[in-house]
Every structure is written in C-alpha cells, then in structure tokens.
Amino acid sequence: MTISKFILITGRTTEQGTALHKGKDSDEYRQATGFVVMSRADRERLGVEEGRSVRVHTAFGETELELREGELPSGIIFVPMGPAANMLIGAETRGTGMPDSKGLEVEVEPL
Fold it and tell me: Quick one: pLDDT at residue 99?
C-alpha cells in the first residue's frame, strides 16, 4: 500500500456555503465537505482512481475521504472546512481564535 506525504490546505467552497443552509448534520453538507482534492499527477502516483476513498492522517487525527481530482500543484491537497477537516487540524489557536488549517503535513493512503 502506498502512503504519500502532502501539504494540507483547507478553505471554504461555494457548495459548502450552499449546503450549510441545510444544516451541518445534513447529507448535503457532509457531501460538500467530505472529500479531498489532489492533482492528477499525485492521484496517479498514489495509484487511486477518482471517487475512491483515501485515509488522510495528520499529527492531530485522521479521516477517510472521497478523492477528487483538481487543479492543484503537486504535493498539495485541499479539504473543505467542515467535520472532516476538523479531524485533521489541531485545536491550538495561539490566541487567534482559529487553529492552523493551512500548511499542515499529512499522509494519504489509498483504501
């Protein structure tokens, strides 16, 4: 099984904002936030097809996400802010009120 290291960035998406109106417990919100995006080159190097599940692991936790291909630089992955992203980022805010959610080292493993 191939495990590769990446840098995680998180952020908001339009789909997430739309689904938020249905509630954070809705299927729409889980679908809008329950995926990871990586470049085609990284996806192929990892040997996993788009739409399959991968395990994303950080020093803070791990979660399983649907893999989607997108236009990102090699070595970078994106996860929308939400329950899945929260499993991957720490709770420490260093007085800012927001934990670090960009630039975290992660490991990605095909399932």
Answer: 52
